[in-house]
Amino acid sequence: MSAPEPIHLRPTAELAERVLLPGDPGRALALAQTLIAKPLMFNHHRGLWGYTGPANHDGQPLTIQSTGMGGPSAAIVLCELAALGAQRAIRVGSCGALDPGLELGELVIAREAVCADGASRALAGSSRVSADGALTESLIAACPRARAGTVLSVDLFYDAAGRHRALRGEDAECEGGEAEIAIEMEAATVFALGASLGVRVACVLAVTDTFTAGEARGRLDDHGLLEAAERMGAAAVAALAA
Question: Fewest CB atoms less than 10 Å from the CB: which of 174, 196, 208, 236?
Fold first, then answer.
């Protein structure tokens, strides 16, 4: 698959070959202020804020580009970043816990994602898709306390965990894989698209939502989310620098 000429991203600064992919534009700004020395605006078009500059970690160029919510938006952004020269990318996002052992603020590294959303199924043509192995191992080494496993990628934010909780593990039994530990919206798409475009993609997530047996939702507060985002960002940059 070849990447199209950019339409939705309108760069105002040079793209780095390594990129962090938060969904939230506000999180992109917060990460840029923490991880980049003198960040420059990379993109502002369509509200998809992006920033670029030398990483505080190693002084090498780093771009942080928001993807928006869901697989279709993430696919557009990654396609256009690939056309501009991106070679490695790490999604730094949020997830809901499916494994009851996960706690709010805990980090999850996605080794693979179950394709329960339309975009990733259209791209992958299969029920599961894997992250880039080498980049994922670097991410695990940079964040050894994170939980590594399989995530479930879906289209719906509300009620998605409840709809899929009853199915959790059935796909794993059919495919010979492991049960999903967390639920989110973009990992399967960026894994599948990265593989087709020759862009190495990995993913680290912060648990922002938990669910009780009665499906009552626990939500990480803004302070906790910012702190988790900073931990994710630091680990992702370290993995990209390895």
Answer: 174
Backbone φ and ψ for 237, nearest 5 degrees, come out as -65, -40
Domain membership flag for residue 9: no
Residue 1 placed within a domain: no
Q: Is residue 52 part of a domain?
A: yes
Residue 169 backbone phi and psi in degrees, to 5? 95, -25
| Identity of the residue numbered 98 | L
β-strands 40-43, 61-65 pairing = unpaired
Task: Write out the chain's pLDDT in tens, 242 residues.
Answer: 677 788 999 999 999 999 999 999 999 999 999 999 999 999 999 999 999 999 999 999 999 999 999 999 999 999 999 999 999 999 999 999 999 999 999 999 999 999 999 999 999 988 999 999 999 999 999 999 999 999 999 999 887 666 665 555 444 444 556 899 999 999 999 999 999 999 999 999 999 999 876 667 899 999 999 999 999 999 999 999 99
Element (H, E) at 208: strand 200-211
pTM, two decimal places = 0.93
**CA angle (153 as vertex; 233, 168 as ends), nearest 5:** 120
In angstroms, what CA-CA distances link 64 with 2, 103, 150, 155, 177? 22, 27, 25, 24, 32
Number of domains in the chain: 1
Q: What is the CATH number of the domain that holds 64?
A: 3.40.50.1580
